[in-house]
Design brief:
Order of helices and strands: EHEHEEHEHEEEHEHE
Number of strands: 10
Structural class: alpha/beta
Oligomer: single chain
CATH topology: Rossmann fold
CATH architecture: 3-Layer(aba) Sandwich
């Protein structure tokens, strides 16, 4: 469960460099929503405009249409996909469908898929993807994607990858910035693992946490 914690002046750029490297190598990459990952995607498109050998997945999605402002797919499309000279094959979660149906479809798509790189956000409550504190999905061991109840605003149903998918990822990269994430970072990366802090339980084969000085300010 060891995490390689890296305090960076610009964590988004460091994440972009890892994304560009993964895109150049090809393989399976899972992306997250959020403002800090969005900047990483913009930079990654500049660093590596050819993602044609890559398959892009989503760690989670809100159950909204793909053009909805709350959609993770829309965020990735506008910050990354639309900027690429050669886009990847993209596997979006069908947020326009009911959550259980969308989760079942994604679970099937993910069969036999091993992620080469997964980007994970870190919520102030310690959640990652749509794995919220105390959620039943944290103990899921068979399914690769499940429906999830919203743990914070916007309160819409969600679909999320499950911990075993992230556990098999060759590299899981957490990305967090700002003082508002400092306590979550401490609990996720420097305290005992707990279901009340989902990010403390979700690890890849290798796990890297890219933090700025503010987000790292409460680490030992």
């Amino acid at each position: 469960m060891t995490v390689d914690i890296r305090v960076e002046d610009d964590p988004a750029r460091s994440a972009a460099e890892l994304l560009a490297e993964a895109a150049a190598a090809g393989g399976h990459v899972a992306l997250a929503g959020g403002s800090t990952p969005a900047r990483a995607y913009e930079l990654a498109a500049l660093l590596q405009p050819d993602w044609s050998g890559t398959q892009v997945w989503f760690g989670d999605e809100r159950v909204v249409p793909p053009d909805d402002g709350r959609s993770n797919y829309r965020l990735v499309r506008t910050t990354l996909l639309d900027a690429l000279a050669r886009p990847p094959e993209t596997h979006r979660i069908r947020g326009e469908l009911p959550a259980e149906e969308a989760a079942a479809l994604y679970d099937g798509e993910l069969a036999d898929v091993t992620l080469d790189l997964a980007v994970g956000g870190l919520g102030r409550d310690g959640h990652t993807a749509s794995l919220f504190p105390g959620a039943p999905a944290l103990t899921e061991r068979e399914r690769r994607a499940v429906a999830a109840e919203a743990g914070l605003e916007p309160f819409v149903p969600r679909v999320t990858m499950t911990p075993p998918v992230f556990a098999a990822a060759r590299l899981l990269v957490y990305l967090a910035t700002g003082e508002g994430k400092a306590e979550a970072a401490r609990r996720a990366f420097a305290a005992e693992p707990s279901a009340e802090v989902p990010a403390s339980l979700v690890r890849g084969i290798r796990t890297v946490a890219l933090l700025d000085a503010a987000a790292a300010s409460r680490l030992p």
